[in-house]
Amino acid sequence: MIRTHPHMLAQYKQQHPYLVALDSIILGFDGETLRVLLVKRGVEEETWSLMGGWLQPDETLDQAANRILYELTGLTNVYLEQLHAFGDPHRDPITRTVSVAYFALIKVADDESRLSDAYQAQWFSVYDLPPLLFDHADMVELSIKRLRYKAAHQPIGFELMPEKFTIPQLKKLYDAIYNTDFDKRNFSRKILSTGLLIKLDEKQKGYSKKGAFYYQVDKAKYQQAIESLLSFIAN
Amino acid sequence: MIRTHPHMLAQYKQQHPYLVALDSIILGFDGETLRVLLVKRGVEEETWSLMGGWLQPDETLDQAANRILYELTGLTNVYLEQLHAFGDPHRDPITRTVSVAYFALIKVADDESRLSDAYQAQWFSVYDLPPLLFDHADMVELSIKRLRYKAAHQPIGFELMPEKFTIPQLKKLYDAIYNTDFDKRNFSRKILSTGLLIKLDEKQKGYSKKGAFYYQVDKAKYQQAIESLLSFIAN
DNA sequence: AATATTAGGTGTAAAGGTGACACATAATTT
DNA sequence: AAATTATGTGTCACCTTTACACCTAATATT
Question: Do you know which SUPFAM superfamilies this protein is assigned to (chains A, B) (predicted)?
Answer without folding.
Answer: Nudix (SSF55811), Winged helix' DNA-binding domain (SSF46785)
